[in-house]
């Protein structure tokens, strides 16, 4: 190999024609160090795949998968790790990074075709199928024992905020998850309407039927001047006049609110001065108006969409048509762990729902919220791409078998690289088997055999500890999750291959 000799002699002398020092081995070293760093992360994550896996540790790649599909975040890192391992071996055999990169792109294109061919179309009206997908997603979570409660809740939430006939995606901002400490996960509930964690400011009015709801963005308190100033009051009569004016000013505002027919008032949080003075609260209380203050700015849009109200920026605009209407607005007590304000029976409801997540401690609530989010994302995937695919390592083994066949139709280095790509995909079934306590080698061999004979749905049944038809076991996932995991992992690996230097 004259090339190899030339390279070694060049790196030994270390000088090129210009006399500047140039290290020929550096790009190769950089590549290997990047690959080994990424592999270390992937190996750490491997132990958390599947229902029996340890808990999660994720990286940028899984963030991308989370945004695109919302599930399969562990799989995408494990696949990337296995592909990097293949790259390492191919590079050591002297194959150029560009050839590897292009072959991997060919392999992933073919892979997407294979996945699409083995998927089954799904109708959004088929509730049972949607429930199975949500349940599969929840199986690998800490709160998996509550999947019978959380899965239907997630399906119902998504179906309420979309029109199944025309929807092409789901805006998850229309599903508000409210975390409330106390109780257990069994107390989680789906509320058609609005739920606020803020307390009612005037406790004497805690239930209003036939509610007319106003949302104000101005302050019910004495006005302040633009610049700091001091008023020196020399006698009591002047003092009295100041207080009388203040009282008249606030009373006038409150009367105007009452005149518009408002009986529930939401007040946006103010940073400049008190959004609600004690005097204003006193008047509102007398007029039997329920007051909820400290509404966060980012919640305004959701509130308006849910109850059909419009935010009011000035008292002059406080008119009956700006108000939203609802059957009932009440403050409900949660068995000793605080209170929530619920608005139900909205007259012109927007397509929004609220999910109240309960839990005995912060960790449980965070985990429940994350799990519900993943289940919602799985159903969103089915709305985006209405097809299902088997889980349990079946798609990966099918890909490995079909890509190995495909590699035989190619020639030269490409065939070699595509073959390495197909072998790398076996990491998912092998890891699933390992984490379920099965023998990975014999399990993957049997799986490969079943798929080669045309049994596309054969996968690892973690519950029974063997291989079975995964579709019959109802272990399913959206097609988008698998396609997204495969394409994102490949893109990441191709990006890492392109890095040949690091600027210190």
CATH superfamily of one domain, please? GroEL-like equatorial domain
Count of helical stretches? 16
Per DSSP E runs of 2 or more residues, the count of β-strands stands at 15
- Text of the CATH class of one domain: Mainly Alpha
Q: What share of the residues does DSSP label as strand, in percent?
A: 15-25%
Low-confidence stretches: 1-15, 52-58
Rg over CA atoms, rounded to whole Å, is 31 Å
Helix content: 40-55%
Shape: elongated
Class computed from helices, strands and strand pairing: alpha/beta
Largest sheet geometry = 7 strands, mixed
**Ends distance:** 34 Å
Mean pLDDT, rounded to whole units?
A: 84
**CATH architecture call of one domain:** Orthogonal Bundle
Could you tell me the CATH topology label of one domain: GROEL, domain 1
How would you summarize the topology of this molecule?
Elements: H1 2-13, H2 26-46, H3 60-68, H4 73-92, H5 97-118, E1 120-121, H6 127-139, H7 147-161, E2 175-181, E3 189-191, E4 193-196, E5 207-216, H8 236-259, E6 264-268, H9 278-286, E7 290-295, H10 300-307, E8 311-312, E9 324-333, E10 339-346, E11 353-359, H11 362-384, E12 387-390, H12 394-409, H13 412-424, H14 427-435, H15 440-452, E13 458-461, E14 466-469, E15 476-478, H16 479-498
Helix pairs in contact: 2-4, 3-4, 3-16, 4-13, 4-16, 5-12, 5-13, 5-16, 6-7, 6-11, 7-11, 8-9, 12-13, 12-15, 14-15
Protein name: T-complex protein 1 subunit delta
Subcellular location: Cytoplasm
GO molecular function: ATP binding; ATP hydrolysis activity; ATP-dependent protein folding chaperone; unfolded protein binding
């Amino acid at each position: 190999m004259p090339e190899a000799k030339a390279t070694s002699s060049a790196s030994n002398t270390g000088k090129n024609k210009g006399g500047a020092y140039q290290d020929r081995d550096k790009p190769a070293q950089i590549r290997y160090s990047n690959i080994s760093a990424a592999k270390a992360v992937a190996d750490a994550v491997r132990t958390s795949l599947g229902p029996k896996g340890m808990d999660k540790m994720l990286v940028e790649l899984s963030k991308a998968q989370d945004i695109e599909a919302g599930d399969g975040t562990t799989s995408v890192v494990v696949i990337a790790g296995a592909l990097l391992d293949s790259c390492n071996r191919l590079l050591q055999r002297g194959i150029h990074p560009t050839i590897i990169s292009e072959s991997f792109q060919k392999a992933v294109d073919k892979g997407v075709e294979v996945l699409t061919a083995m998927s089954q179309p799904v109708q959004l009206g088929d509730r049972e199928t949607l429930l199975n997908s949500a349940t599969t997603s929840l199986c690998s979570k800490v709160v998996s024992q509550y999947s019978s409660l959380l899965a239907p809740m997630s399906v119902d939430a998504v179906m309420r905020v979309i029109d199944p006939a025309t929807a092409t995606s789901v805006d998850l901002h229309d599903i508000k998850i409210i975390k409330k400490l106390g109780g257990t996960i069994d107390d989680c509930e789906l509320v058609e309407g609005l739920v606020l964690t803020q307390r009612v400011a005037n406790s004497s009015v805690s239930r209003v039927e036939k509610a007319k709801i106003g949302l104000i963005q101005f302050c019910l308190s004495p006005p302040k001047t633009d610049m700091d100033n001091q008023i020196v009051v020399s006698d009591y009569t002047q003092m009295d006049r100041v207080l009388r004016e203040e009282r008249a000013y606030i009373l006038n505002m409150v009367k105007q609110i009452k005149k518009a027919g408002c009986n529930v008032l939401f007040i946006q949080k103010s940073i400049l001065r008190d959004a609600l003075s004690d005097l204003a609260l006193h008047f509102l209380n007398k007029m039997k108006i329920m007051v909820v203050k400290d509404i966060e700015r980012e919640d305004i849009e959701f509130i308006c969409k849910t109850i059909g109200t419009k935010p009011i920026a000035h008292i002059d605009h406080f008119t009956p048509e700006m108000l939203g209407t609802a059957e009932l607005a009440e403050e409900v007590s949660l068995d000793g762990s605080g209170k929530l304000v619920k608005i139900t029976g909205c007259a012109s409801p927007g397509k929004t729902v609220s999910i109240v997540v309960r839990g005995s401690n912060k960790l449980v609530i965070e985990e429940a919220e994350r799990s519900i989010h993943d289940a919602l994302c799985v159903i969103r995937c089915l709305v985006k791409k209405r097809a299902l695919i088997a889980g349990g390592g079946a798609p990966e083994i099918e890909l490995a078998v079909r890509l190995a066949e495909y590699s035989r139709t190619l020639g030269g280095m490409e065939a070699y690289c595509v073959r390495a790509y197909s072998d790398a995909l076996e990491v998912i079934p092998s890891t699933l088997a390992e984490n379920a306590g099965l023998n990975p080698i014999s399990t993957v061999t049997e799986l490969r055999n079943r798929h080669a004979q045309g049994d596309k749905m054969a996968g690892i049944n973690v519950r029974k500890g063997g291989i079975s038809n995964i579709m019959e076991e109802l272990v399913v996932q959206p097609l988008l999750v698998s396609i997204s995991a495969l394409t994102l992992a490949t893109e990441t690996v191709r990006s890492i291959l392109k890095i040949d230097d690091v600027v210190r």
